[in-house]
Batch of 2 targets.
Target 1
Amino acid sequence: MNKKLIVVIKGGLGNQLFCYSLGRNIALKYNYDLILDLDSGFRYDKIYQRKNCLHHFCIEALRAKPSERMEPLGKYRRKIAGILTDLRLNIHGAFIREKELAFSPLFLRDPKSDPVYFDGYWQSEKYFIENEEIIRNDLKFSGLKPSAANLDMLLKIQNCNAVMIHIRWFIEPGTKSALNEALSSYYKSAVSYMSAHVELPHYFVFSDRPDQVKTYLSDLPADAFTIVDINSTGTAIYDLWLQTHFRYFIIANSTFSWWGAWLSTRKDKIVIAPALKNDGISAWGFEGLIPEHWIQL
């Protein structure tokens, strides 16, 4: 039996894909059995109440048993295991934690432990790009049943020079106030760039607050954009599915549209991302997050 690599899956859909991809790459490189902890990362997510979404993809991996999640009292036992690993006292395996979001090649080394547990967000393609073909195959959609509205939208996307725009709103925990994290100037600059490089572009806008996005598109005539408002809470996977069919992307500072752009198989795609840094509202712009061939504005 191979050594065990246990990776915690957590966060929203985009972050879950990063967690899986890091684990899959390390398991392939060093001949580990990949085991997914699909429980620990969501148990204390009281504010957002996110759930595992990996069942929507062609992923085959074992699910961590309670003992592999260090249960009972897993939260405290994992914390102690992390401290012991930092002290190089990982007698019963290693618990590797991501302490900073910036990419670090140190995490790509052979862990040389059995079992080894990875806990982090791992938000960089550099953590898995050497096995890109396998990762892309794993992350093909599985079992989706698009509605008639989604299929109609896909046809519209395929029949024009479609540009995807994602505008995300941040809901401050404990309040009902919402902030848009990327400035309107970013979207205006990105639209200007696309309009100069794409013949007769039509913009498809994805947003969790579709009623509030028109102010970001004030430079466009009404017939130049379509607001994609067909998937409600719980069906965001279909928004991601639609996004992967585009060639041109204006993403938000969001791992959701990051993956929408990355999963597109178009070799000639153009991806524009906001050149933001961590501003205290969201984590963005750290080393390794934006692929080198994407455009930052």
Target 2
Amino acid sequence: MAGASGPMRDFLTRHREGLLLSCLLAASLLIISQQVEDRTGMTYLKRWAITLMAPFQSGASQVTGVFSGIWHDYFYLFDVRENNHKLRSEVNRLRSEVQILKEELYRVGNLARYSRYQEKTGLQGIAARVIGESPDPWTRLIIINRGRDDGIATSMPVTTPEGLVGRVVETSPSSSVVRLIVDRSSRVPVLVSRSRARAILEGENSGTCQMKYLDRTEDVQEGDIVITSGLAGVYPRGIEVGTISQVLKENYGLYQYAKLLPKAPIARLEDVLVLTGSNTGEDAE
């Protein structure tokens, strides 16, 4: 450091007068530029300061603008995200309401259909909704949301506008058990609408039934419509049960047999009509 300061001291000593004159000249220029104004009324010192600071101010403005833009975009995207979340929630809510309304419209339409069915047939009944079914594969039972408190009693027939469903076999205050016509223990006296041939309809625990005790001399054909005969005092006469899908007739024996497809949608029942205006009693079961 000592070696470096020696030459500098010599330089200042030799050029002291020149340096002093230069400092006095620079000070004079500063004083003059601070006092002298240009044609716009701005002093030269102020204009030089602005010129020198302009690049730094421009850079600072750009940096500030970038950060300001990022900050603004962050809050904008945050608002967009919040609005999207609210919109999705609103859409889901509206979808749920639409689905509920669709179900209500279907329910109202179904009840109107049952009302027309009762007016057409003169049958009296109570509409009920299916709320359960037997998990046992060896039985075909459903549970409905009407019971003793609603006037439901055992042996009451159960139907739909399409066709016969079964009959009530058990009741509680608020629900009932219905044995379907396809249950193996179900027995329904029926007749063929076209030829008036009589038979007993038995379930097969599947989607079909079998017509038994059908005299082999009777005229029975595939496509014949089968209705309740009204015998045994349980099922009113004339309720459509189903259509014959196959006729089985041996070369011997007293009877022929026929397969029947139920007309009611047994596998997808939602609403049924429990007939309360018909006579009740024990049938062939």
